[in-house]
Write a structure and sequence with these properties.
This protein has a single domain (about 25-260, about 325-365), classed as Alpha-Beta Barrel (TIM Barrel). Helix content is about 30%, strand content about 20%. The protein has helices at about 70-80, 100-105, 105-125, 150-170, 190-195, 235-245, 285-295, 325-340, 355-365, and strands at about 25-30, 45-55, 60-65, 85-90, 125-130, 175-180, 200-205, 255-260, 260-265, 280-285, 300-305, 310-315, 320-325, 345-350. The protein has an eight-stranded parallel beta barrel, surrounded by six helices. A five-stranded antiparallel sheet has the order 10-9-13-12-11, with no helix packed on it. The protein starts with about 25 loop residues before the first strand and ends with a helix.
């Protein structure tokens, strides 16, 4: 997941104490752990996932920086003004280690569950989201083992029991337990049907399909495969189909969207750079940056792939290709969510969308008014 600098917190939403209107589909937004937290309009989403807390080798859940304490208190204060909002702490992220070691034994699984429960009580948050990238896989050098597949199920079951016990001491309050998950080979190390029973929902990372780790350009968050893409390429609809086929209920799936793009240069010029080899991966420009300096500006021409339902930019002079999401692609994903009866949508990350242009699209597309 991509991070960005954030600006001052703006608490703008429905009047204090008012309940937001009921909605048929949930909207989950990640907020990175910088200080101050990014501006949030609390009436436009259902759940804030504060990212990230970390694990130590013993299973202790640790806040990731000295300002996290203040940030969580501020987010919980926001929920006090808007009681329909849920605040969840996400543990992990790309490169976060020790999941495999903690999940290996019953004692460390229980220690993690107890530590998570203590964090929930201390800050009065609404639950835990796990972002283990990825069970059984090394990722960027994290610990891993084949036993992760079963142990991840056991870890989530331990967490679910502990959160239910905690809720029983608080008048039957239900504490959320969710995970961030990718598709394709990244879920080969997860017992999807089994872990689903412990979870309130999955936040599907249906983005980052094309990055510095892939050999060609392509849609990094395409809803469907491009006509130019190989059959084994990744796409949002394929990810959803994989989870449904594994027995995950449709209502537990949130389709992920990215408030940032992926930029490549030295790209072969055929098909305006789409599905082509490239010389260098450059950056992950935020939606804010794309609007300010790229989309139909400075030699970048916007194209729309009707089959993939995804936009992209091509600069013929510099042979630069940028894949990204925009209001048109987000509306297409929202329509897909509704057509498939899915749970809702998730996005990374709040600070990348300064004026909430993309969040507004999700809100307007999914909310019941």
């Amino acid at each position: 997941m991509v991070r960005a600098l954030v600006s001052a917190l703006v608490l703008c939403a429905v009047p204090a104490g008012a309940q937001a209107p009921a909605r048929a589909y949930r909207i989950v937004g990640y907020v990175a752990d910088f200080w101050p937290p990014a501006p949030i309009s609390a009436d436009k989403l259902d759940v804030v996932n504060y990212a990230f807390a970390l694990l130590d080798p013993r299973g202790e859940v640790l806040l990731s920086n000295p300002n996290a304490d203040r940030a969580l208190h501020r987010l919980v204060d926001l929920r006090k003004r808007h009681p329909a909002l849920k605040i969840v702490v996400s543990i992990g992220g790309w490169g976060a280690d020790h999941f495999s070691d903690v999940a290996l034994a019953a004692a460390t699984r229980q220690h993690m569950a107890d530590s998570a429960a203590a964090l929930i009580e201390k800050y009065d948050v609404d639950g835990i989201d796990l972002d283990w990238e990825y069970p059984t896989l090394p990722g960027p050098g994290i610990s891993h083992r084949p036993e992760d597949k079963r142990n991840f199920s056991l870890l989530l079951e331990t967490l679910r029991r502990r959160l239910d016990a905690l809720g029983a001491t608080h008048g039957g309050r239900h504490y959320l337990l969710t995970i961030a998950a990718a598709d394709s080979e990244f879920v080969a190390g997860i017992e999807l049907a089994r872990v689903s029973r412990s979870l309130d929902w999955f936040n599907l990372m249906t983005y980052d399909f094309h990055t510095s780790l892939t050999p060609t350009t392509g849609h990094h968050a395409g809803l469907h495969l491009s006509a130019l893409a190989p059959a084994d390429d990744r796409a949002g609809d394929k990810a959803v189909a994989q989870f449904l086929a594994a027995g995950v209920p449709a209502g537990k799936l949130n389709v992920g969207v990215a408030f940032y793009g992926r930029e490549f240069t030295g790209v072969d010029p055929a098909h305006d750079g789409l599905q082509q080899k490239y010389a260098k991966y450059v950056d992950a420009p935020s939606w804010r940056e794309l609007v300010a300096g790229f989309i139909d500006k400075n030699g970048y021409v916007r194209h729309w792939d009707a089959q993939a339902q995804a936009p992209y930019l091509w600069n013929a002079a510099t042979r630069t290709f940028i894949t990204y999401e925009d209001p048109q692609s987000l509306r297409a994903k929202a329509d897909f969510v509704k057509a498939k009866g899915l749970g809702g949508m998730m996005y990374w990350e709040q600070s990348l969308d300064d004026h909430e242009e993309l969040l507004d699209v999700l809100d307007q597309s999914l909310r019941s008014r």
